[in-house]
Design goal:
alpha+beta; about 180 residues; six-stranded antiparallel beta sheet; elongated
């Protein structure tokens, strides 16, 4: 029974998250648990920020999921992966947004932990702690490894988004960043 509750919780989180992402809810798109933050400076930032459509075009020629972008206020672009047409897929553990500081020319990419990934992580831990057999304890490290690999893939792609945003806005110099 406990396992069924965990599966239902993860499934409900997936459905709620899909709905919020599809409708570009500002509260969902711009707030949450920050798990990635990287930045760079555009040497000659343009007056206008990159348009969502131009950013999407930069990621169209790939077997990986493309990116959908949407302006969220005067200095932010929210984005997430779009799996339609993708030949290679992975589990999204975060969603992101770009912020642009017109005064300093800094571009920042922020990754926010997806609710589905958080529920999956909590279900892994709860399932392992409640398990009386070795199977639950063996599954937890495997599940954590899969989440870690997906995070690393997304972090690399978010670096590409950051570089593309800086290139669209102006010339880019150094990229700096850290997780969290």
């Amino acid at each position: 029974m406990f396992e069924l509750v965990l599966v239902l919780a993860v499934g409900i989180a997936f459905l709620v998250e899909t709905h919020l992402a599809r409708h570009w809810s500002p509260g969902y798109s711009l707030s949450g648990i920050r798990v990635l933050r990287r930045s760079c400076h555009a040497l000659k930032p343009a007056r206008d920020l990159p348009r969502a459509e131009r950013m999407e075009l930069r990621f169209m020629e790939t077997e990986l999921p493309t990116f959908d972008f949407k302006r969220m206020g005067p200095d932010r672009l929210a984005f997430h992966e779009n799996y339609s047409g993708a030949k290679t897929v992975y589990t999204q553990v975060m969603r992101g947004y770009l912020s642009f500081d017109r005064r300093t020319g800094e571009v920042q990419v922020v990754g926010l932990l997806n609710y589905f990934a958080l529920c999956f992580l909590l279900a892994l831990v709860a399932g392992a702690l409640a398990s009386v057999d070795v199977g639950g304890l063996i599954f937890m490290p495997f599940g954590l490894l899969v989440l870690g690999i997906c995070y690393a893939m997304q972090a690399g792609r978010y670096d590409e988004v950051l570089s593309a945003a800086a290139a669209e806005w102006g010339s880019q110099d150094d990229v700096t960043g850290h997780a969290g």
